[in-house]
Write a structure and sequence with these properties.
single chain, alpha+beta, five-stranded antiparallel beta sheet, 11 helices, extended
Length: about 375
């Protein structure tokens, strides 16, 4: 199995209270750990470093080579103490073996209960798609579970006076609404995507025979693609991490069979060109990649040894986001889809960190200038010659 980035997977039983960094570069010391010597003040030092990126890079590279190196303390201990330290490492090794066994047993336990959850997911899909109706008991239980701060039901099932009670099949746009309430997924969905996601019939999860899981998106007939099922599979490495968690290896997505001119991951850019001799103009159209939820099914590949540090770091960030999205769908969206549909699940989400005003600068003017420059270039430098 190919070696991927060292991203640990925490099961619901051992998920930490705060997220630990999962990038392989996250533990390297940065410039904040370097203490300036002499009389140079912190502000002057920061200004000097800001003007000298080559020096910053050199210091960071030097610090990177020091990670994991011995301080000499262990070697300075008496032989009998060093022997005890080695013995403790042996005890720790046994602990690590038990950790790995525990994770595998937890995974088997999850699979056992997933088999019990499956009939409930099937009943949910039948109700959502109008193939079944909930029982009176299920409705009563749901009403009792959905109350506001005053104890009043938030879902009223009895029609109000003069309320339109037009017959409707199932729960329209159930999955689209649920996804748009999940913060991470909502940020990926464009207006163009919504027209396709309205046809989502179900989202399911499957465990693999090997460590990993598969997300399955089922669609009804639509104007965008021919696939009935689009899946994405996450694989774990056979070996567990230092802490005993499963480690992500890679992800593979199905190829979407787009209908002609309906690829939501591409957009058409038009370019106007003018002939210098005849002054006639023509319009050139070309397809370019664009933001879309459906890019989720084309996951980034792990960085290779040939990638530059900056490129590798960018790929790792994209991989981190990709795996986080997969986990959100598996652990949050699928198990509690109705709570995301109603928005109640948001009450249990950790609030996003507020950004300090001034952390980001507006780039709209710069973008507009670039577009203006492009238009001028289109009509001059890129003129068509006959």
């Amino acid at each position: 199995m190919s070696s991927g980035p060292n991203f640990s997977f925490s099961t619901p039983q051992n998920t930490p209270a705060s997220n630990a960094p999962i990038s392989s570069r996250a533990q390297q010391p940065g410039l904040g750990s370097v203490q300036e010597e002499g009389n140079m003040g912190d502000a002057a030092a920061a200004a000097m470093l800001a003007k000298n990126p080559a020096l910053v890079s050199m210091i960071q590279n030097k610090l990177g080579t020091l990670v994991g190196q011995s301080s000499g303390y262990i070697e300075s201990l008496p032989p009998n103490v060093r022997r005890r330290v080695a013995g403790l490492k042996g005890v720790q090794k046994e602990h690590s073996k038990l950790d790995a066994e525990m994770q595998k047993e937890i995974l088997e336990l999850e699979k056992k209960y997933f088999a019990k959850f499956t009939p409930l997911y099937e009943k949910r899909a039948a109700i959502v798609n109008g193939k079944a109706e909930p029982s009176d008991e299920e409705v009563t239980t749901g009403e009792e579970a959905s109350t506001d701060d005053d104890g009043k039901p938030t879902i009223k099932t009895e029609p109000e006076e003069d309320e339109d009670n037009t017959p409707m099949t199932g729960i329209p746009e159930f999955w689209l609404s649920a996804m748009k309430n999940e913060p991470q997924l909502a940020g990926m969905i464009t207006e163009r995507d919504e027209e396709a996601l309205k046809h989502l019939v179900d989202i399911r999860m499957e465990y693999l025979d090997q460590p990993g899981f598969r997300l399955v998106f089922e669609f009804g007939s639509n104007d965008f693609f021919d696939n009935k099922l689009i899946s994405k599979t996450y694989f774990y490495q056979e070996e567990t991490s230092y802490s005993g968690d499963f480690v992500y290896d890679r992800a593979d997505g199905d190829k979407i069979q787009w209908k002609t001119d309906k690829d939501l991951t591409m957009k058409i850019e038009t370019k106007k060109q003018r002939n210098k001799n005849t002054k006639q103009t023509r319009v050139i159209k070309k397809s370019v990649p664009t933001d879309s939820f459906f890019n989720f099914f084309s996951p980034p590949k792990p960085p290779s040894d040939d990638d530059e540090d900056d490129a590798a770091s960018d790929i790792e960030e994209r991989l981190e986001l990709d795996y986080a999205l997969g986990e959100d769908i598996k652990e949050k969206l699928i198990p509690r889809a109705v709570d995301w549909f109603t928005g109640e699940a948001l009450k249990f989400e950790e609030p996003m960190e507020e950004l300090e005003e001034g952390e980001f600068e507006d780039e709209d003017d710069e973008d507009e200038d670039d577009l203006s420059d492009d238009r001028e270039e289109d009509e001059t430098d890129d003129d068509v010659r006959e």
